[in-house]
Amino acid sequence: MVDKIKQLLEEVDAFQAEKLAEVEDFRIKMLSKKGLISTLFNEFKTLGPEDKREVGQQLNVLKNKALDKVNNLKTQIEERVNQAKSSDKYPDLTLPADFTGSGSRHPISIVRNQINSIFEKIGFVISEGPEIEDDWHNFSALNFADEHPARDMQDTFFVEKNPDIALRTHTSSVQVRVMNSQKPPIRTISPGRVFRNEAISARAHCIFHQVEGLYIDKGVSFADLKHVLDHFAREFFGADARIRLRPSYFPFTEPSAEVDVSCPFCKGKGCNICKGSGWVEIMGCGMVDPNVLENCNIDSKVYSGYAFGMGIERITMLKYLVNDLRLYFENDLRFLRQFAPAY
Ligand code: PHE
After folding, report:
1. In terms of residue numbers, what domain contains 52?
2. Model pTM above 0.85
3. Are residue 290 and residue 149 in the same domain, yes or no?
4. Are residue 193 and residue 249 in the same domain, yes or no?
5. Do 31 and 157 lie in a common domain?
6. Is 65 helix (H, G, I), strand (E, B) or coil?
7. For ligand 1, what atom is nearest to the CA of residue 175?
8. Mutation test of ligand 1: which of 186, 226, 252 has the most ligand atoms closer than 8 Å to its C-beta?
9. How remote is the C-alpha of 162 from its chain's centroid?
C-alpha cells in the first residue's frame, strides 16, 4: 500500500492539464467516491493499528496534494481563459490600423463652404437665422406690400395655418435680422436652407439652399456690387469667367438685376448646358431699397448698400454637372461617394 501511495504521489506531482475537462477527469479518477484515493482509504480501514498511523499520514498528504493540484490547475486555466477574453476586448493597440473608409461631405456643403470662404477672405462675416420666420422678417420688412403680387413669386409654406408664421422662403430674412441688430458698416453673408411650396421635379424642389450677401456703408454703389460679383465669379468658376447683369425686379432692391456667368462648360461658345446662349443665370442682386433700410432703422440718406442672393443647388449643378436637383436630397451613396476625396 505504501508503494501504491508513493506511485500516486508521483502521478499527482507530474500531472499537468490544458483544459478544465482534463482536470475534472483527473479529479474523478483520484478523488471521487470510487476514485483511486478513496479506494485506498477503504483499504486503509482494514489495516492493523501499527500500520494505520504511518499509512494514514501518507494518505492524508496524498489526498491534500491531489486536492491542491486540482484547485490550482483550475484557477490557472480559468485565469488564462479570462485573459484571452479580455485581450479580445482590448486588442493590441500598437497594431497598424485597418482602413475602414470614411464618409464625405455632401456636394451642397462643399460648394457652400467654398462660397463662404471666397467672401470671408474679403471681409464678409457669416450670419445665420431661424428657418421658421414671421411675416415681417421674410416679407414686410423687405418691402413686400401686404397684397403685393410679389408675394406670389415665392410660394410659401405656412406653419399651422397661421398666416404670420412661415418657413422662410429666402435667407434675406437673416439680413433683416442683421440690419436690425447691428450698425453699419455691415458686410455679411447668410447661407441657409429655404423652403418654397413647389412641385418637386428635376429643376425645382421645395427645399433648397441659398447664400445671400449684404453690404451697407456710406457711399456703396452699383459699381461696388458689380466688382464683388465679378470677383466671386472668377474665384469660383476660374479666372476666365465673365459676368453680365440683366435688369430685373425684386421688392427689396432698386435697381435690381439678374446675374449671368459665362457658361463654365463651353466658355461662352454655346452648348446644351447654356442652351446655346453662352451664359447661365446664377443669382439675383441689386441696391438695397431705401424703404428696407428705413424699416430696419438705418438712415437711407446716410447709408446705401447692395445685396445679392444665389441658390447653392444651382451653382453646384454647374460645378459638377448634376442634371437633377432631386439627387441632392435622396442620399443615394452611389451619388454621394463621387464627391469623396480620393485616398
Ligand atoms: N432673395 C432673392 C430670392 O430668393 C434673391 C436676392 C437676394 C435678390 C438679394 C436680390 C438681392 O430670389
Report:
1. 2-87
2. no
3. yes
4. yes
5. no
6. helix
7. 9
8. 252
9. 33
